[in-house]
């Protein structure tokens, strides 16, 4: 659970309930009390932006360790270098794109709690990232659709995106995730509606990047239900969009958001460095955390 803190952050909200810029805070020198306030604001606002930061790879990892327990860079993809196995490099020169709506690493039994993304190389124009508020999206569903979604389970499968990479580029041996070396990407089941473990709020927990189908319904029914939820999740009123500048850092709660990186910068180079915080097993309405 988040704890109360006496520190008051200077927040510039980007919407009534979703997203905020944190002004005047240097993440490299922030106190424990300030980072506790950041952690609380992250649960409340779901995605936070910090302008004009001076973090390097070492500083990003150090920040992550102060906020939670870091995972490996990714279950399958290696770290940016040997000194930083926690950093996942999204490099457009090496197919490092994220131009599909997704929530990070939902194809594992325990997806990350949250992510911290730092702009390293930016294109002259384009390359914005958008986040969707899955809790606001759930709240605005009609009552009958909520009742249906509350009962459903979905399969998340990382093989479509990373199966070839694991087999061909890593020789079938990925990183250590939750104490075990990843040697295959077994599809996992998660509730379609996730209950946030800190607030108890419900959110839509399916995404086009990794969700393959709904359990216990026909293929046509699964496709129709998922299309409905995806369209609703990504309505403009559920979204904030960030235009990156040098030094920017974004943090988001992976338990209550999905995101999408625009691939609208042609052949220009874009590099982002991401770290993730260890999470828990998702649970749905009427169920308990495993």
From TrEMBL:
<comment type="similarity">
    <text>Belongs to the TfdA dioxygenase family.</text>
</comment>
<keyword id="KW-0223">Dioxygenase</keyword>
<dbReference type="InterPro" id="IPR003819">
    <property type="entry name" value="TauD/TfdA-like"/>
</dbReference>
<protein>
    <submittedName>
        <fullName>Taurine dioxygenase</fullName>
    </submittedName>
</protein>
<dbReference type="InterPro" id="IPR051323">
    <property type="entry name" value="AtsK-like"/>
</dbReference>
<keyword id="KW-0408">Iron</keyword>
<keyword id="KW-0479">Metal-binding</keyword>
<keyword id="KW-0560">Oxidoreductase</keyword>
<feature type="domain" description="TauD/TfdA-like">
    <location>
        <begin position="11"/>
        <end position="276"/>
    </location>
</feature>
<dbReference type="GO" id="GO:0051213">
    <property type="term" value="F:dioxygenase activity"/>
</dbReference>
<dbReference type="InterPro" id="IPR042098">
    <property type="entry name" value="TauD-like_sf"/>
</dbReference>
<dbReference type="Pfam" id="PF02668">
    <property type="entry name" value="TauD"/>
</dbReference>
């Amino acid at each position: 659970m988040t704890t109360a803190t006496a520190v008051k952050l200077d927040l510039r909200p980007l919407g009534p309930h979703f997203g905020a810029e944190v002004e005047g805070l240097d993440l490299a020198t922030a106190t424990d009390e300030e980072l506790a306030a950041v952690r609380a604001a992250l649960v409340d606002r779901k995605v936070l932006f910090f302008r004009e930061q001076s973090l390097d790879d070492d500083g990003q990892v150090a920040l992550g360790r102060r906020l939670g327990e870091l995972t490996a860079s990714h279950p399958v993809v290696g770290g940016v270098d040997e000194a930083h196995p926690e950093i996942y490099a999204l490099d457009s020169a090496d197919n490092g794109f994220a131009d599909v709506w997704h929530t990070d690493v939902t194809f594992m039994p325990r997806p990350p709690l949250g992510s911290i993304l730092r702009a390293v190389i930016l294109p002259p124009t384009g390359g914005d990232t958008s986040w969707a508020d899955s809790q606001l999206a759930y709240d605005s569903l009609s009552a009958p659709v909520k009742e249906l979604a509350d009962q459903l389970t979905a399969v998340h499968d990382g093989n479509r995106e990373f199966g070839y990479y694991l087999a061909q580029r890593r020789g079938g041996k990925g990183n250590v995730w939750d104490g075990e070396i990843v040697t295959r990407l077994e599809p996992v089941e998660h509730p379609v509606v996730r209950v946030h473990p800190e607030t108890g709020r419900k959110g839509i927990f399916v995404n086009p990047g990794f969700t393959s189908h709904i359990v216990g319904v026909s293929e046509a029914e699964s496709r129709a239900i998922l299309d409905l939820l995806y369209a609703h999740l990504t309505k403009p009123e559920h979204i904030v969009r960030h235009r990156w500048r040098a030094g920017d850092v974004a943090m988001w709660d992976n338990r209550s958001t999905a995101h999408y990186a625009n691939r609208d910068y042609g052949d220009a180079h874009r590099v982002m460095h991401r770290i993730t915080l260890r999470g828990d097993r998702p649970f749905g309405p009427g169920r308990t955390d495993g």
